[in-house]
Amino acid sequence: MSSQNNQVLFNEKQLLESVFGDAVFLRKLLDIFLNDSQSLLIEIAEALDMSDGNTLRRKAHSMKNLGRNISSQLLIDIALELEKNGEREVFSEAKEKYPKLRELVFELQRAVRLFIDESIPN
Question: Which of 5, 12, 21, 23 has the fewest CB within 10 Å, making it most exposed?
């Protein structure tokens, strides 16, 4: 799936290979992304509001893992940046990146739902 600027949101081929074609397991991974990404966005925003570097680091790390689970290098990269911001307690930089993370997660959620509807049998 590609975003409007032609960067790959998530690598469908790599994702399918990572689960060895197991549609049931793939569906579970994608459902975890859909459920957890929303709560992690909220928790990252709260960590930024409270200038809590440790929580920002941990929640961004969890978001990075979600990116790995769905083969999204874009999500991995921005979550890693936020994770490093949390480690260094560089909140101004992290606050500038958060809208990009939020937009990317929303775009990924739409793309994942479409992928589920079009590619994964019930």
Answer: 5
Alpha helices in 5-90 (DSSP H): 12-18, 23-49, 53-69, 73-88
At residue 105 the predicted structure's pLDDT band, cuts being 50, 70 and 90, is very high
Residues in contact with 11: Cβ distance below 8 Å, sequence separation at least 6, in sequence order: 71, 72, 73
CA 61 – CA 55 distance, rounded (Å): 10
Token output for 25: 């397991």
Contact call for residues 71 and 101 (beta carbons, < 8 A): no
Residues above pLDDT 70, as percent of the chain: 93
- Distance of alpha carbon 36 from alpha carbon 96, whole angstroms: 22
pTM over 0.85: yes
